[in-house]
Write a structure and sequence with these properties.
This is Serine/threonine phosphatase. GO terms for molecular function: protein serine/threonine phosphatase activity. InterPro entries: PP2C (IPR015655), PPM-type-like_dom_sf (IPR036457), PPM-type_phosphatase-like_dom (IPR001932). There is one protein chain. The protein is 38% helix and 23% strand. It is an alpha+beta fold and 309 residues long. The longest helix has 26 residues. The radius of gyration is 20 Å and the shape is globular. It is built from 9 helices and 10 strands.
């Protein structure tokens, strides 16, 4: 390719990324027990305003195929929506007017399509119908009258979305489809009790019953690719300059407490926060269980977006 052509393409790409209202960092690594097979998958589409993490369930090649299939399906479907939206505009960019779309419904349809792909094409590739994946997904659109942005988000399983705003404590926007949520739903524990169990560092902080809940907290109650279509949780929130948003799989939040996650995001550059989160979770996974009950080898994925518009 001629030098001038390469230079023009690099210049165009630079200016397109300057249009993005986010500074983004992302990192995904495989479990050290199967270093060549990463069962997580991530989407970072700054220009299209779409970000997602997927965590294949089951610890096998089928888990990797499940997360790959869901990720590819979601990318294709979002690009299809944006292509239809831009109406012959040459610039690929995120949705410009939140009011023209029911984005909660759009994301729900996106995830249902991914679920169908996992159960059909994914099952064919994996030679088994026993495959599934979690998803946490965030999409952005502009509020045209006030020039603010809205984040619409959806999730199934125990991959999470967090918001860190100003000097406020980090806020978990999603609720895991797992044991602790079921215990809250059945009024066996309250939200404060469940949070204390989930954030424990040592066994002596918990009773025997609580410790058993802690050990089982990673079991999820639904995922994409299961025998029935999932119940998809959706919501939306306005985002403002300086807001930091984290999407992560359970390899991050099982190893690190919410307080530790907040500290990493606050004290590291925007461009490296995801990498440091993954490195911190990997270090924790090496710790002996006599030091902490949180230590857990796993695939680990994080995306951190900082709003800078």
């Amino acid at each position: 390719m001629p030098h001038n052509t390469q230079h023009k393409k690099r210049t165009k790409l630079y200016h397109l990324h300057q249009r993005s209202p986010f500074t983004t960092s992302g990192r995904s690594i495989a479990n050290e027990r199967h270093p060549t097979r990463n069962e997580d998958n991530i989407i970072i589409d700054e220009l299209g305003g779409l970000f997602a993490v997927f965590d294949g369930v089951g610890g096998s090649a089928a888990a990797e195929i499940a997360s790959q299939t869901a990720s590819h399906s979601t990318r294709r479907a979002w690009k299809r929506i944006l292509t239809k939206e831009r109406n012959r505009r040459k610039i690929y960019t995120f949705l410009e007017d939140c009011n023209q779309h029911d984005l909660c419904k759009v994301l729900e349809d996106l995830i249902l399509e991914a679920d169908e792909q996992v159960r059909t094409n994914g099952a064919t590739r994996a030679h088994t119908d026993d495959l599934a994946t979690t998803v946490a997904l965030a999409a952005f659109c502009r509020q045209p009258d006030i020039h603010d942005y809205t984040m619409v988000y959806a999730h199934v399983g125990d991959s999470r979305i967090y918001l860190l705003r100003g000097e406020e404590r980090i806020q978990r926007l999603t609720h895991d489809d797992g044991l602790l949520s079921k215990l809250i739903e059945n009024q066996i524990v309250n939200e404060y009790h469940a949070f204390r169990i989930d954030q424990a560092m040592r066994a002596d902080q918990l009773s025997d019953v609580e410790y058993n809940y802690f050990r089982l907290r990673g079991g999820i109650t639904q995922a994409l690719g299961g025998p029935i279509p999932p119940t998809i949780h959706t919501n939306k929130i306005s985002v403002y300059p300086g807001d930091r948003i984290l999407l992560c799989t359970d390899g991050i939040h099982d190893n690190l407490t919410d307080e530790e996650i907040e500290h990493v995001i606050r004290t590291n550059p925007r461009s490296s926060a995801a990498r440091v989160l993954v490195e911190s979770a990997r270090e924790r996974s090496h710790e002996d269980r006599s030091q902490t009950i949180r230590s857990k080898p796993d695939d680990m994925s994080a995306i951190v977006m900082t709003c800078r518009f």
